[in-house]
Amino acid sequence: MGQKVQRVEDQRFLRGHGRYVDDVAVDAQTLHAAVLRSPHAHARIVDIDVSAVLDLEGVHAVWTYEDLAELSPPMAEPLPLLIPHPALTHGRTQYALAKDEVNYMGEAVAFVVAEDRYVAEDAVGLIRVEYAVLPPVVGIPAARAAERLVHDDVPANLGARLEQNVGDAPAAIASAPHRLALDLTVERSACMPMEGRGTVARWDPDLNRLQAWTSTQTSTGVRAALAVKMGLDLGQVDVITPDVGGGFGVKINHPWPEELLVPLAARVLGRTVKFTEDRREHFISTAHERGQEQHIEVGFDDDGRLLGLDVMLWHDHGAYTPYGLIVPIITSTQLLGPYKPQNYRVVFESLYTNTVMVTPYRGAGRPQACYAMERTMDAIASYLGKDRAEVRAANFIQPDEFPYDHGLIFQDGRELEYDSGDYPASLEKLKTLVGWDEFPAFQAEMAAQGRRVGIGLACYVEGTGVGPYEGAHVHIETSGKVKVATGLTTQGQGHATVFAQLVADELGVRFEDVEVVTGDTRRMPYAVGTFASRAAVMSGSAIHLAAKRAKEKVLKIAADALEVDEKDLQIVDGVVSVVGAPPDSVGASIDLGTVSVLSNPLRYAFDEASKRATQFQVGDPGKPPVPEDEEPGLEGKDFYSPERATFASGMHAVIVETDPETAEITILKYAVVHDCGNLINPMIVEGQIHGGVAQGVGGALYERMAYDESGQLLNASFMDFLMPYVTEVPDGIDIDHLETPSPLNPLGIKGAGEAGVIPSAAVFAAAIEDAERTASPGFAITAMPISPSELFALRRSKESS
Amino acid sequence: MSEERLDFVLTVNGTTHAVRLPPRRLLSDALRHDLGLTGTHVGCEHGVCGACTVLLDGRAVRSCLVFAVSTQDAEVTTVEGLTEPDGSLGPVQQAFLECHGLQCGFCTPGFLTTITAGLRDNPSPTHEEARDMIAGNLCRCTGYQNIVKAVERAAEIAHGFETVAGATSSATGAESGQLEYEDRDDDNASTGLGA
Predict the structure, then answer these.
(1) Residue in B with minimal Cα distance to A720
(2) Which residue has the higher pLDDT, A146 or A3?
(3) A residues 34-93 near B, CB within 8 Å?
(4) What is the pTM of this model?
(5) Domain count, chain B
(6) What residue ranges define each of the domains in chain A, with the CATH number in brackets?
(7) Is the dihedral of CA A677, A683, A688, A692 positive or negative?
């Protein structure tokens, strides 16, 4: 633990031997699916005519909603609302294929299975649908105005309203020495993994069971959904998540229509069926995130100390709510960051629009939260004429105040209680790393040359490693090799490496003898999934505990075989030996493979380890070969279920330059201080930060979903949606780590996956605002992302006003 | 009506394949679905992301923008063809391993082929040139930081320098900074393709 160990999975990936879902079942017998999607944002379906498809050679099936009930009655019901909440009074989910109406452009209407994808798409093009187009609701202002409704039975387009209070914020603000109000907006973006969604399924008539491969963040979730929707017993369904080409949140939502339709087709047609979405489908038929409007009122004292904070959020959740209220709940609770306002009220309204639905995207509501809080901190500092770092420091929860209970309920339904952290130390590290105190002189020097440079900083706290649990199974084979399984899935985080590090450390085996499998329900049927920066905390802890159990069994058997006390034994490089005994002394050591043989009193001998085992005698001749309360085999299995989330934290700073003429925005320096507790593999943590920062740059400066007033997504391609290339990201990211261990898990770790993206909108808004302040008149940045054109327009409007 | 098919030869990584395919078959699909060379990945199907980049007579091209039939007189090199004759990783692959230049690995084949061609044209890129070399490929995981390092490291390896970059290995054969390769395709429990 703590070593920059190279990744074992890279060998496969670098040789082109990765196995992503579209690489499974590559043969001429596999059938391919394509989906007809709604071209309208809001319409009633009058008629669907598939007759032209039936004549097309190579087509095996064409289904609309009308066909689903007959194929499997539960398939005709709406898709599950995965995370209900009492405040979600008007939750709605779509059907696997649209029934009577469509509510966003891209909603699945018909499903075709054909010899190959080319023919399947030909067939989709032959389906004729008559729509009665309805006026759509696009954007938060239209949703709030509610002149039109997305769903006829959802008044005011209001899916949910949730209020949380600590103290009396309005009264505290009213009596505060100083008051400010801010109105902020953040636009939509999306995860955009390089690999889109995909599902392959095969029905085995001999075993009467289904095998499905899917590019998901939760194999067990998909498995349960498939069993219900196909009317199968859970035990008849295996779900395997092979290599996944990025997730970032979008693949936690499940089941997608295609994730159900493909296995159904495999069963009905008796053939392997595959669906791999194209990039346009990913844009218009998966999920987006981030879109919010925020109104903030704050009262504070002369030092900038918060006395009351009153926040109203309007959250655009798109056409449906399968993932409940997770995103706005996180925004409303994580908004507090490292600070302790005395009084806090937060209300959110989660609103329907005729657009692609909103589910978590890396950060999951936190980037909006950080933006709201940090823009407020900057506004307070500006109002008081104080240093922005100083105002933040005045509000920090202090190191001796942990655990710190905010008095709110977090996304997991548990108290929002921070476990550990050291925010003043983080701030000092960040100031040093970015050169905060030296910056004003540099800024003045640049200003004298007519150049506009600015600096911004932003702080966040991130609840990571939320429950309920993960499990792990560790099996030591007679070869001495260790096979590890955990149920959550992997999308590039290097789990096969970091989890193997943990097992090697705990068990005393060679790192390269450990093989880790994730996301295979045959190997670990109890699991939750990969989201909320939880894999290292949850599965890492579970694996550590399972390895501990295996180790206990190893030592017990080895002590019996070597006729010594367990306490005198050590395990090094897969060999159990008596501490202090000479290396070659006879009867003083035993390898794990031999221990594995001894753990399983078989009648038959197969291998070298079996031969070696004959020199040892274990067990009590007076008892059964497998004593009561014991099991054969050298295995360890355990689960980790924490009381609550662990809270990682960090602070980012960026220095930007804005062009006085063109308003082009250039990043000069980007600095990160990051605290995710103890590090398992610093190389992998830094890689996660790099990726998060790049996604944050995209979200702050480039990426938005350009819907027009009719609900058409105008930029649904990589040509038009501006994802950062290397030319858009900082050339170098300065990273410093602080390690305040979590008391909640045996490894003292916290999650790291999402952190890099959280402060981006906040930190860029601050830096650009600071750069523009060097030229009069300065102005507040209140809408993100911001493009050069928008910055230019802001300058113009301020000059003319 | 049955779709017209053409007989032609695809030469990939030095092996010739006689194929019979519709004229509209993309090179990316032919490589993946007809030849089973799934190392080439398709990320956007409109030539923007670069994941599907292969070498056509040594030049980097987007295989999603090329009809398979149009390549019958050319030599195609895919990521599977970048390893050394003895099975060890090629310089660009080795550099990605050492520098943690990949996470999910989906875009990686396109970077490896692009950089292979790039270093052939410019074996000693400056830092700026290393960044330019990858400026047409999208990656959503790494933020490109370690990919740029990998370009620079690959140039060093190709020049025979053995200075070690970034990460170290905990493997027993760590003297070389290189993990022993074990191809787990045959017993790949995670994909369920073991049979």
Answers:
(1) B48
(2) A146
(3) 57-58
(4) 0.94
(5) 2
(6) 10-134+197-276 (3.90.1170.50), 361-466+643-800 (3.30.365.10), 470-640 (3.30.365.10)
(7) positive
